[in-house]
Write a structure and sequence with these properties.
Blueprint: H1 2-49, E1 71-72, E2 78-79, E3 91-93, E4 98-100, H2 102-111, H3 124-136
Antiparallel strand pairs: 1-2, 3-4
Length: about 150
C-alpha cells in the first residue's frame, strides 16, 4: 500500500514538471523561430540594399522581385530566379572547376557582379543572406546539382 501512495503522491509533482518542461521547450522553440525570422528579414534587407562597397548595385538590381522571379543582368541576359537556389547547392561550377556552396555563390556575386567586398564566411551578414535565399525555396524538393529555375 505504501508503494501505491508514493506513486499517487508523485503524480502532481510529475505533472508540474511536465508542464514546466512543455513551457520551457515552447519558449526555446519560439526564441529559435524569432531568431530565424530576424535573420531572414535582415537578409532580405541586405539583399535589397547592401552594395558591399562596390559599384552601387545591390543583389536586387539583377535578381528581381527579391529573387523570387527571373532576373536580368545589366547586359540584358535573363537569369533564373532564386526560388530553388538553396535546393541545388552544393553544386559543381564549370567556370571554377570545383564544387561550391550557396554561401560561396553569394560571396561570388558580391565580388564579381557587385564589384564589392563579400561578407566573411560565418558572418551574421552572410548567414542572413543565406537564410533569406533559403526561405525562397521553402517547400521545394532538394535537387543538389540541379538546374536553377
Amino acid at each position: 500500500m505504501k508503494a501505491m501512495s508514493n506513486r499517487v503522491g508523485l503524480k502532481p509533482v510529475f505533472l508540474v514538471g511536465l508542464m514546466f518542461s512543455a513551457v520551457l521547450v515552447s519558449n526555446i522553440a519560439y526564441a529559435a523561430d524569432t531568431q530565424l525570422e530576424n535573420a531572414i528579414l535582415q537578409g532580405k534587407n541586405s539583399f535589397a540594399h547592401d552594395t558591399f562597397g562596390g559599384n552601387g548595385k545591390a543583389c536586387v538590381s539583377c535578381h528581381l522581385a527579391g529573387g523570387a522571379e527571373p532576373g536580368k543582368l545589366p547586359n540584358g541576359k535573363v537569369i533564373p530566379s532564386l526560388a530553388n537556389a538553396a535546393t541545388i547547392f552544393p553544386r559543381f561550377q564549370q567556370r571554377s572547376g570545383k564544387v561550391i556552396t550557396l554561401t560561396d555563390q553569394i560571396r561570388s556575386c558580391a565580388t564579381n557582379a557587385l564589384q564589392g567586398t563579400p561578407p566573411d564566411y560565418g558572418s551574421a551578414e552572410l548567414n542572413s543572406l543565406a537564410s533569406y535565399i533559403t526561405s525562397l525555396a521553402q517547400g521545394k524538393p532538394i535537387d543538389m546539382g540541379g538546374t536553377p529555375q
